Amino acid sequence: MTDTAHHDRDDEDWLAAQFALGLLEGDALSQAARRMRTDRIFASQVNSWQVQLSDLDSEFTEVTPPASVKRAVTTRLFGAEPSMLSRLWNSVPLWRGVAALGVVAAVAVSLNNPVYTDPDGLRDAQLITALFAPGGEVAFITRFDAERAVLRVNRVSGEAEPGRDLELWFAPTPTAAPMSMGVVPEQQVYEIELTPELVELMTTNAHFGVSDEPEGGSTTGAPSGPVLVVADILAI
Amino acid sequence: MTAEHIETLIGRVVLKDRAAFVELYDLTSAKLFGVCLRVLKDRAEAEEAVQEAFVRIWKNAASYKPGGFSPISWMVAIARNHSIDRLRKQRGGHVEIDEAVQIPDSGPGPEAQLIASDTGRRVTTCLDGLPEDRASAVRGAYLEGYSYAELAERHAVPLNTMKTWLRRSLLALRDCLGGGKMEEV
């Protein structure tokens, strides 16, 4: 390595360190911020510094915030004090019960919604979900076949580690607790038969996710391992 | 509060599980509030900052990837970045960087993986190898969110000297983390 190259490398690393520390200001900051989005090598240098420096996190002392902060956060995210219904709706044990009963409770709520409730009013839209994460190995595409009441799942890439399984999850609304759609089998494309109740829930309001679970799937009724990908149902 | 448990909760938050979010808040809010308070040094400001941090955690949980940051450090980084952002904005003359100081992508980049696998050395250990005032300046920048001007004032050195201190210290840290000898700073 020449001296100049060595010097350049130091400059780059130093810039990344300053960005990670929050020391940059003004134009230097704007430029570095832009590079964070466009320059993968630079972004990974910043990331590397952030991970290394996080070793100092143990030196931050814990201070319990007042209860008003928690109320403010939950109100901002979930609206006013949740009603009994929405609390039940979000309770995982209930979801497990509901799933076992064929999602009876969910029907009552969504009965009036046509299958294709999308804001653009598209007719004959296909409901698909593209599950992938930048840089991630796991990628899935799901397509809802309304006529046959099945969900087609295509595992585009990725497989579970030995002794682990991938599990597909479905949540009918942005805030609903996820319900298991089962452990992902070995074949690349497979179909899940949907109950009429589940068919009703296949809307653009819903989302899917895939998590990494112990062999045989989560035993808790909710994702117990890392969630690898998550994506909304889209109408195209 | 184990890392695995926090990671599981973040995973459930990705799927918008509110109960998991509330548990995550209960387990980690004291740490995050501590971070905001340390950087902002003002209770009311810190309360708003920690609120915003948790809103971002709810919205951006999907960007957490296991393997780089410990899950709590990922959350600390969100709180810290946001607090520094607020701090600089308060003082004026600061460009809007809400977008800029992005929630760090928690997957370790190739560099981080390299360093992590190369040596078991850690920043805290390597900082001990620096002269005390240099180590204190690095800590001041990370833990207190001090700017160059503030650090220069606190250490009673000219601004450019402080920049040189930090540059040399950070590059020496890098070499130490990478397994090399600490050069004279």
TrEMBL record, chain A:
Protein name in UniProt: Anti-sigma-K factor RskA
InterPro entries documented for this protein: Anti-sigma-K/W_factor, RskA_C
Transmembrane segments: none
GO BP annotations, alphabetical order: regulation of translation
Single GO MF descriptor: sigma factor antagonist activity
Domain Anti-sigma K factor RskA C-terminal: 98-227
Domain of life: Bacteria
Cellular component GO terms held in the UniProt record: plasma membrane
Pfam family, any one: RskA_C
UniProtKB/TrEMBL annotation, chain B:
InterPro entries in UniProt: RNA_pol_sigma-70-like, RNA_pol_sigma-70_dom, RNA_pol_sigma70_r2, RNA_pol_sigma70_r4_t2, RNA_pol_sigma_r2, RNA_pol_sigma_r3/r4-like, WH-like_DNA-bd_sf
Protein keywords: Sigma factor, Transcription, Transcription regulation
Gene Ontology biological-process annotations: DNA-templated transcription initiation
Domain RNA polymerase sigma-70 region: 27-91
Signal peptide: none
Domain RNA polymerase sigma factor 70 region 4 type: 122-173
Protein name in UniProt: RNA polymerase sigma-70 factor, ECF subfamily
NCBIfam families: sigma70-ECF
Residue stretches spanning the membrane: none
Native species: Pontivivens marinum
Family indicated by similarity: Belongs to the sigma-70 factor family. ECF subfamily.
GO terms of molecular function: DNA binding; sigma factor activity
Keyword Ligase: no
